[in-house]
Batch of 2 targets.
Target 1
Amino acid sequence: MRPFLPAPAAFPEPPPEDVIARAEIVDLSDRLERDGRLVWDAPAGEWEILRFGRRSTGANTRPAPRPGLGLECDKLDPAALDAHFDAFVGRLVREVGPRPLDRAAGWTSLHIDSWEMGAQNWTAGFGAEFRGRRGYDPLPYVPAMTGRVAESVEISERFLWDLRLTLQELVIENHAAHLRDLGRRHGFRLSIEPYDMNPTADLTLGGVADVPMGEFWAHGHGFDSAFSCVEAASIAHTTGRSIVGAEAFTAGESEAWRLYPALLKDQGDWALCAGINRVVFHRFAHQPWLDRRPGMTMGPYGVHWDRTQTWWPLAGAYHRYLARCQFLLRQGAPVADVCYLVPEGAPHVFRPPASALAGELPDRRGFAFDGCAPEALVAGARVEEERIVFPGGAAYRLLVLPAVETMTPRLLRAVAALVAAGATIAGSPPQGSPSLEEYPRCDEEVAELAAELWGGRAPSAEVVRRSAGTGAIVWGGELQVAGAAPDGTPELYPTYEATARLLAALGTPPDFASDGPLRYAHRRTADADLYFVANRTAREIDAAGTFRVTGRRPERWDPLTGAIHRLATFAERDGRTTVPLRFAPHQSWFVVFRAEPTAGAPVVANGADRREPSLLARIDGPWDVFFAPENGGPGSVRFATLGDWRESADPQIRHYAGIATYTGAFDLPGLPAAGPRRLVLDIGEVPDLARIRLNGADLGILWCAPWRVEVAAAARAGGNRLEIDVASLWPNRLIGDCALPPEEQVAWTTWNPYGPGDPLLPSGLLGPVRILAGE
């Protein structure tokens, strides 16, 4: 499916015999009898009779359980949505009662999921709507809807462009915005996932939402829909929305209870850097039973995120990590340099130049960007200090026009106003309007405005800068667009490298750079710059980050623990600050620049300069391990050493799914009375999650690297009792149950993709478990 339709300024015309002249089109609507018969005394000659009717597209709700199956409602008619709303949402509201408007808990929102139902091209009263919006009668041109050429290819294509635009306006006004308004009567907000067979422009539909949303599938377990997260962030940033949601970690059959928080961290950090700051897990299934696990599923779809997961009692630590990150990434305004204007018309999927993204999970490069819907530019953009500013505070040094040959006078007037106010615009002049509205005067106005701004139509072989008002138009040379993206989609924007050189010429250095494999996001508040920086690799790295901030002290904020460390080692040069950073595999930090630390925050000086702690003790065993019998476990077992449960001869251990508790003892005879400044427990390798208790003190949950926790407050020289709760996954149990009669099976689920011979997953505390000491 193509992400957009072309809108050229000129078309090759067929021979006259393949064209229907306007004078040859006869409206026979008043010759139809009530029973549908045509009564017409046709003039001499050969006539082709086209009969147009209106019916349902046949699109059904999907995927849905049988009670939820049915025809999609008319997306162009507000009365159809009223009926649907009353029968569905209205029925629920009447059942549960009105929502308390003074509480943020409970049912707070309505949601339009990814579109997926295709398009429609007519509704009752559509002709009158079209005439009122476009200023001309569509009837003489409707043969173009069948693929015929009415009057000329150019006229037919302009009509079809107007037709799609009118349909988009009706979807926006009579469906999306109408649902938003209906919901607000009950105190609901509206979130929208505006993509996937959407008949409108994605950014335009998403602009209706209180919370625009994208979607990403768990890496390796489904489709690549990362583009929708770029779209959702762009919508929020250019319309002043502070929350950007994502249907997160959607998955297909291959996931099958295999994923857990540590395996999600890299992609989750990617989403945070892409602009997502509300993770909406797909999926959380209702579990109606207290004695059946893993219980209800949505068939093979989604990461299984509900209370029947084996590791659910330990998931709070991961949720706290996300909460800290999401909270900080909603503060202030996003920082980006490039605003890509999306072409007018529908449908359209925003795709930045492929070179503006890097990595298997596509990260923005050092100059961040957003896409902008034409409506958002016309309604909300202004210029402050040579930057294009939108409601909410997002500001861009450069507006890049799409490489399309047409633009309506309304949009071109808005572009001209920005240039006059001091903005810098990159792109070539439009050659005409794509619309039949006010034709041919629309083309004349576009030509007049383009001549004022660009001074000509032919691009130069070199990049040319032309002043206009207090701003400038830059075009030609390497800013000319040619070629296609890797997927074959025509590129609409210059390469990242060309845009980066232009920004450098404007005196704007990259917002972030590093000598290591780091991704980032940047937000700015009134008194701080907050950078979220994450290691993209599964290895430990030392990397220097260079941030476009100066005159402020850097601090390292740990979203895992909430600890804040003031960084003493950094260097300032040419308006940027370089900071050395150390990362565990897939570890992330917030690097925050502010004048002084927040009063009362737990700040530690020189936090980035600590040396790696040294080995103080190794806890090899023996270990007493308790496997809960209600989960199919054997009860208490002694392990001489640590090892993988898959290698056990006992099938109750080999196929165990749930939380098992390791208990071990150790002494620290070399521990000084005052103790070292740092005493760290490192638990080595754990396939899933672990909770740590030392001498009765709960030290928290470890779910990702570094698998370490501070233990100085609880440790003593002798007689230390260490307890580690370790969670394993459902697949091993589901595989084991396949070889058991039903009455002996431990697990119960509505969907089990496993067989008795399937390979088992790593399980248990693999270690090594060590005590490390540092200064």
Note: The chain has a mean pLDDT of 94.
Target 2
Amino acid sequence: MQYKQFLLDQFQIDAIAAIEDGKSVVVSAPTGAGKTLIAEYLIEKFLKEDKRIIYTAPIKALSNQKYRDFKGAWGQKVGILTGDVAINERAPVLIMTTEIFRNMLMNDLEALEGVMYVIFDEIHYINDIERGVIWEESIIFAPPEMRFLALSATIPNAASLGGWISHIKKQEVQVISYHQRPVPLRQYVYDDKNGLFPLVEFKKTLSRQQQPQKRGGYHPFPFSFYRDLIKKLQQDRLLPALFFIFSREATYNFGWEAYRSFSFSTPEEREKIGRIFDTVIGDPELLQVDSIRRMKKLVLEGIGVHNAGLLPILKEAVEVLFTEKLLKLLFVTETFALGVNMPAKTVVFHSLEKYDGLSFRYLMSREFFQMGGRAGRRGIDEFGVNISIIPQNLDTGEFQRITDEQLEPLESQFKLSYNTILNLIKKHSEDEIIHIINMSFHQFQSNYERIRTEEQVGKIRGSLKNHGENLFHDCRDWGNIRKYLKSKEQVDYLRKYLWEIERQVQKIRIKRLKRKKLSERDWAAAHFDQQMTHHTKLSCTSCPHLQDCLGSYKKIRQDLRDLSYFEKQLKNISQIDQVEIFHKKRKLLSELGYLSLGKITARGETGSLVYGYELIITELLYEAVFEISPEPLINMLLGAILFERPKKGELPKFRHQDPETRRTIQRARKIAHRIRSMEQSFLGEKTSPIINNEIMPLIEMWCAGRDFSELTSSFPMEEGDIIRLFRAIIDLLRQLVRVTREYEALRNKFKRCIDLMDRDIVSLSYYLKEEKPVKPEPQPAV
């Protein structure tokens, strides 16, 4: 079977057949295997039938990329809806982040009328600790007539995911798992002694070690360690190469070190790179920004850097150049592995450890193979190359775990937000709510695990009963067996002890020490004779059925150990009771006035329309904090709620000069503190954010019309992080515009807040908009 001039693999044919049969489909296949082709077939099929399709992605960058790709294929039939941009919202093919889809299911179901299929790209994000619940809720709350196409890199429990969807949606789900890579992968390790070494051979040396080595801490290699490796990759035609480095700062450092040592571009390529780079950046003023000028120097030599701290438009320029095969060396963080289809000939892991926000940890096997899957370009390379750097302090046990392809299964991260609870109470009875909560993937996995464990317990108990009925011929005496084994253990110990003393006596030349050892030998010999006499008198010693009894006894002991293990597992299954959490949070919402006599109040209605930070935002609204605050201060307060303090380094403390502004900030902080105190009392934990006023000067400068370069030169944050924060503020303001649609004065104030934030490079970096926003007049500082 062919589609778009491609000869389809069997897993693609099977998926298309299931779509033709009207089934939901879960596809698990390696990176680059061609999962997107299935999605394109589905879109084309239903466009011909005048039906609608939703395409969801976990991050805005991936949504934006798919919008560009799909618009090129289907033109005005494609739209996009994210927190940043809304274009052609009623298009038959609508691309959005998964959060937007979930929110529409909650409060704008009419906008999804006529949608036949929802495509969940990167469905393994259901495993994400912070955001995985969004995917679960999207499936749970979807109308029963909707079908799903769930796409993911290889996951071991795809059948469990498909079984859950089938169970809760009462529809047939086809699970398709495909394990063959389209481009074979050759795996190597690299160290400063042996150079490149096949992974298989290296693991053989590990298996011969008697004791696994343990790591001694995190010590990554400097760039100088890699010069010979890069030269070899260049000589063996193994470029382009992605270097995965789990530090933004290190990606920059490595990029400049490579710039000083290598140049991969011909004069013709250098000219083409410059032309493409300038075209993507677009605005001549942006080309003068320091970070953009520096990156241009790198890419002209065929070297690039890509991480979440870059300006979005700069990441786009790097991605375009890499796609055009003009970059030969790209230093990236793990965000590059997500979704964006940009494979290389070679992938190099600078380390197998990363900082997760709390401490350094080794990669999960799933992370390793997700990133390593970027090696090998379909239709270009005969094979891809994966290279793992081996430090001297390698934990060999962890290395075996990471590279053995025993991928960790997806696990539910379901948790009830206040927004979800309010929307459930609005629309359902308590019995229905309990039923919905029990539809979670978490509950499905717990039920499956409980049934499997109960089966194991039953099997072991049956085995024990069978052993009990057929054990110990006529005597059936556990006590005799125990006495025999204890006595035999003592005899064996004394025999070994005697042999050791005899060996020592032969070596000793000093008479005094020799007499002491001979005395010990006499004592041990006497005890040995005494124990042997006792042992031979035991009834089991001469019993003809002894070996049978010992075999049965050994099986019973193992069964008892297994039974203890599985019974403990049974107690630990589903320790998190989401129904109990629902009752606790409902009680807290009642205390705050969001519910009255079990019904939602006006305050609760507002909270049900705010997605994320719902309690503090609603309280600030109802306490009139936004109403009395000027626009810049509103933006500062929202930024202080959204901002997370950096894990490393300190920000300067901030205390505003204006007394009235200080009082308003203090009032907001008291509201946040009150909510967190109530959460501690009702839930035993604090989940709502605090007001991080350290970020306020940055937002105040921007609202006052200051240039972006002034922000980056005076505040210790990366450009991409600043823009991401500003876009999050704009997204939250747009929610507030919708929430206050019946309060014109406040609604217009929030619109003015958006105008202050949504300007210059903050808007230009999201260039999918059909028109660039007009720059507003600068506002005075608060």
Note: Residues 765-782 have pLDDT under 50 and may be disordered.
